[in-house]
Design brief:
mainly alpha, I/LWEQ domain, globular
Length: about 400
Amino acid sequence: MRPMATESETQRLRLGATLRQEDRVLPLELFFDLVFVLALTQCTTLMSDNPTWEGLGQGMLVLALLWWSWVAYAWLTSLVNPEEGGVRIALFAAMASFLIAAICVPEAFGSLATEFAIAYGAVRFAQIFLMAIAGRDDPSLRRSVTGLGIGTAIGVTLLIAGSFLDPGLQAAVWGLALVLDMSEPYFFGAEGWRLVPGHFAERHGLIVIIALGESIVAIGVGAGTELTWGIAAAAALGIGLAAALWWTYFDIVALVSARRLVRAPEGKVQNELARDSYSYIHFLIVAGIVLLALGLKKALGHPSDPLADTPAFALVGGIAVYLLGLVAFRYRHIRSINRHRFALAVLLFALFPLALEVSALVMLVLLNLALWTMIGYETRGYGEDRAEVRHGDAAPSAS
């Protein structure tokens, strides 16, 4: 845990509030994240309303944009206390802009493209404004914020310009804007950023919980207002998949990774670890869950029928992408590949043709068997190390 800030440091970064000094996520941050729940649901709706490969790509592109805006606030609230002074009011304003952007998502490649781009820009610039004030007397942080501001200005300009184009060209321009915006922290250095590592790791763990909650919402939406034995079985199996994803992240991985981030040397090393493993790699984890939510929503609609191509890919590919995200997460921390998770991800991609032939209910059974078999194998393989990780403070290799 970081040493307590001196009074002069607190005043220097005040912004009408105080420099964050505690690890726990605060209620206002959870309140802010509720808007992201709607954003995730809207991304699923966009893809569900256009269940084609084009719709799938559009949904993932919009999700990536929304993810990057959420990441910006995770960094902000790991610098300043969001519940004190003017930051609280600014976050409420950002929530309003984020909400408008989320409302626009189903028509982000249609009639509300420009409105989405403008609302998204408001969310991003509000965060940069707050970061700039927080770093006004910190030259290193100020340089980092300046670079981020330039990258964001270019990205938002491209988003607004692209919103006037046809959907194909719009997607290309928006993709370029996303790449430029997300690349800025990687190419312009991480030395100047500040964070409380325990808080930062917990905040990302909670957003995984929120994404898993969206998959459960998708089950309910897919089931509609009727209940048959097939729908009930599919719903139970859907919960089984969500629980399995929760287990693979929170049983060991989240605990060990958070400790590694806390113990990493402060400054460049710690910031780059946070940037790579949480800001970048966690997008794969969240995207995998959103894809699974789409697959579950369609599966619950007609559990006795095979899924169409894009929902079938979302169902098996979503879990595969999630597992690959966990593999990348581990590799970034200890340069080691979890071979059985990687192998299962490859197997799931290979099962895509089968998902087009068998009923959605049968596919849900097979996916549950595959995931829970892997979990059982891992849990047994961890042995006493698992108890030490969960109830002690060691076993850094057990992720």
